[in-house]
Write a structure and sequence with these properties.
The structure holds two protein chains of two kinds.
Chain A: H1 2-14, H2 16-33, E1 39-40, E2 45-46, H3 47-78, H4 80-84, H5 93-120, H6 127-154, H7 160-174, H8 186-192, H9 196-208, H10 215-242
Antiparallel strand pairs in A: 1-2
Chain B: H1 3-12, E1 16-25, E2 28-38, E3 43-47, H2 54-61, E4 69-74, H3 79-84, E5 88-91, H4 103-113, H5 120-126, H6 142-153, E6 160-164, H7 172-187, E7 191-195, H8 199-205, E8 208-213, E9 216-221, H9 223-229, E10 233-238, H10 245-249, E11 254-260, E12 263-268, H11 271-280, E13 286-292, H12 295-310
Parallel strand pairs in B: 3-7, 3-8, 5-6, 6-7
Antiparallel strand pairs in B: 1-2, 1-4, 8-9, 10-12, 10-13, 11-12
Classes of the chains: A mainly alpha, B alpha/beta.
Chain lengths: 243, 311
């Protein structure tokens, strides 16, 4: 299985468009929107440190969601998944390799945003906060990796891109990764706080505020992880029987 | 596991054993009570018209699908166990390949995943794709992609090689080169099973031909036996004057009759006896020809006879 992870990774790193959107693009948006002084209402965080967590989360989300869902749908249709089933690779090995390679790409997309934020916008945090942020955002991206796999097994080759895009932008915008959800009308805020992306960014912000993460955010993330992973596993099994 | 028992079961069990296997999709019986056994070292062709159940049969054999009833055993174990043990290499008809990686990287992956791998560069050379090793997989022609699939199927020392329509998309010379490569595999003592719709390939390459029709095994034997089963020989001749059909139709061993103009064409399961009786009719046949049926005609005759029986 390691050789498949290695090859998936080689392929991901070779894909410039994918690398641009998952690694460079979040930092570019960060630079564009963090150029304000002052604090974000009700958080005590500077705009730069607030947006840094949003964009690091957004970058990780892009890396784990965008590539995999489309690849899985296409490779399922093209028959590569069938071909792999004729090897010693265990059934779930394909999905694990995809997730592992996405996780490797998502790490630099997080770290690059942090480096840019610290170097250009003077964001300063304690050492433990940098590590905890990296760890929390990286681990939290698994929720969306599971979602990417589920979409890949749910959608057919033609439908997968629009479905992924709608999910991706919907979750990013409504979850408050692009602008603070406190700017939304109240009814939308009531919906947004139950979205996994909202809980995901809130996790990072709690660390920046030196607070323990809110129980509700953790609960939302865990619930969505089981929902997405369970859905992916169920769809995977269905697909295997169909072959 | 005790190595002695492993060897004992391996020699006792056929390479592939289907026992009363059925598979239904909706109301269609794709495979219908199929029973067959393949033995070590055989090169077997699986023939059948489209929709005969060839691909389903191979999917069942490879564990890609589960049978509704009956059992499929490969080397005495389940298909999946045989694959995990590295005993089966397979090439699917539309086996997708991983995009955006090179041919060499993909073949290396197949070698890494095989329990008894060969060197990737040897696999590339044997499949005749060394010179395109650095090319991206998604930039290959149909024939080149088939060779890459073949390389994936032969990345390790497997005992059974399964190929579904392996020469689809290849031109004649590529096909000949492909079968030469395939012969080497068979000569090393491997069992080879291939599905094809090129009957001349089955005729030239297979030791044994299985004819599948509507999910059932219609014929099983050497190409020569299949031809014999169909009504082995074709007799044709010209007659002058008006032709009296009845006595000709009554000739012994005649299996089919076609009269067009002055020319009479007969298929006979014993051409010697038929021709002997023909002279007994007191006619004077001109341009008499007696020839063997091609496998293609035999195949058509067998499946047409089955269609007639069923309707």
């Amino acid at each position: 299985m390691n050789s498949l992870i290695k090859l998936e990774l080689t392929r991901a790193l070779r894909n410039r468009k994918f690398l641009f959107f998952s690694v460079i693009y979040p930092s570019v948006i960060f630079l564009l929107v963090s150029n304000q002084t002052g604090k974000v209402d009700g958080t005590g965080l500077s705009v730069a440190s607030y947006v840094m967590v949003s964009m690091a989360s957004f970058g990780a989300l892009t890396a784990v969601l965008m590539g995999n869902s489309e690849r899985i749908a296409k490779e399922r249709e093209g028959g590569w998944v069938r071909q792999l089933r004729l090897t010693t690779l265990p059934g779930r090995g394909y999905v694990l390799a995809k997730t592992a390679s996405a996780a490797v790409v998502s790490l630099p997309s997080i770290v690059v945003v942090f480096l840019v934020a610290a170097a250009v916008r003077d964001v300063r945090l304690d050492a433990w906060q940098w590590f905890a942020l990296t760890g929390a955002i990286w681990a939290g991206s698994l929720v969306f990796a599971a979602l990417g796999v589920a979409i890949g097994y749910l959608a057919s080759g033609d439908a997968v891109r629009p479905i992924t895009m709608i999910t991706y932008f919907g979750l990013s915008i409504l979850g408050g990764l692009w602008m603070p959800s406190s700017t939304f009308p109240q009814w939308l805020q009531d919906i947004a706080k139950w979205l996994p992306t909202h809980a995901y960014a809130a996790l990072g912000r709690a660390i920046e505020q030196s607070q323990a993460p809110h129980a509700q955010d953790i609960a939302v993330l865990v619930a969505f992880f089981f929902l997405f992973a369970g859905g992916a596993a169920w769809l995977y099994r269905k697909d295997t029987l169909k072959a | 596991m005790d190595p002695m028992t492993t060897t004992a079961t391996a020699t006792a069990a056929p390479v592939v054993g289907f026992d009363q296997v059925s598979k239904t999709y909706g109301s269609v019986r794709a495979v219908d009570g199929l029973t067959l056994a393949l033995h070590p070292g055989e090169t077997v062709a699986l023939l059948g018209p489209n929709g005969a159940g060839k691909s389903t049969t191979l999917d069942l054999l490879l564990g890609l699908k589960n049978a509704d009833s009956g059992t499929v055993r490969v080397f005495g174990t389940s298909p999946r166990e045989a694959i995990v043990a590295g005993r089966v290499g397979a090439m699917l008809q539309s086996g997708g390949l991983m995009d955006e990686v090179t041919v060499a990287e993909l073949v290396k992956l197949a070698c890494d995943l095989h329990p008894k791998p060969y060197q990737a560069k040897d696999v590339l050379a044997r499949a005749g794709i060394s010179q395109i090793a650095d090319r991206k997989v998604n930039k290959l022609s149909g024939g080149q992609a088939q060779r890459v699939r073949f390389a994936l199927a032969t990345a390790g020392d497997s005992d059974l090689i399964v190929l579904d329509e392996p020469t689809t998309g290849m031109d004649v010379s590529a096909r000949q080169a492909f079968w030469a490569t395939m012969r080497e595999q068979a000569d090393q003592g491997r069992t080879v099973l291939f599905a094809t719709h090129y009957l001349e390939e089955a005729d030239a390459i297979a030791d044994r031909v299985l004819v599948l029709h509507r999910g059932r095994l219609l014929a099983d034997g050497t190409a020569a036996e299949i031809k014999a089963k169909a009504g082995a020989r074709r007799v044709s001749f010209d007659l002058e004057g008006p032709i009296d059909e009845a006595p000709i139709r009554a000739l012994p061993f005649l299996t089919s009759l076609d009269i067009s103009g002055q020319t009479v064409r007969i298929q006979s399961s014993d051409a010697d006896a038929t021709v002997h009786a023909l002279y007994g009719l007191g006619v004077y046949p001109r341009n008499l020809e007696v020839a063997g049926l091609g496998l293609e005609q035999a195949f058509v005759a067998i499946t047409a006879a089955e269609e007639a029986k069923q309707s």
